[in-house]
Design a protein that fits this description.
It is built from two helices and five strands; from the N terminus they run αββββαβ. β2 and β3 form a beta hairpin. The chain has helices spanning 2-21, 83-94, and strands at residues 23-27, 34-41, 44-60, 63-78, 106-111. Strands 1, 2, 3, 4 and 5 form a five-stranded antiparallel beta sheet that branches.
């Protein structure tokens, strides 16, 4: 009887330890998510959005521990300009001067460590 109680206790401790350290991931709804960016320069700033293709958040227990995201670089969109100036900035950001989206259509963001 003593060995049975000891075995049950050891099994419970093992399960609790594994559960507390287990990593889980949750998919991000890419159609409802995007990145809001702000680019600053000496004479001001611009802002816009970039869409996600896919992503996931990684949790260790109930705490956020990391994440992986694939970004659709062709979706760069300036939101603080209109017309010709918006088209020029979007084109410039997509060019080889910045992100070279013709060659690099996606980018990967990996968060390996999350700190308070």
């Amino acid at each position: 009887m003593k060995n049975t109680i000891k075995s049950i206790f050891l099994a419970a401790v093992t399960v609790l330890t594994f559960s507390a350290n287990a990593q889980t991931s949750k998919k991000v709804n890419a159609t409802k998510s995007n990145i809001h960016w702000v680019g600053k320069k000496v004479t001001g700033q611009h802002e816009g959005t970039i869409s996600l293709q896919e992503g996931e958040l990684i949790f260790k227990g109930s705490k956020l521990a990391g994440g992986n995201f694939t970004v659709d670089m062709t979706s760069i969109n300036t939101t603080d300009l209109d017309g010709e100036w918006k088209d020029k900035l979007d084109g410039h950001l997509k060019s080889d001067d910045f992100f070279g989206v013709e060659k690099f259509k996606t980018a990967t963001l990996k968060f390996k460590k999350i700190a308070a």
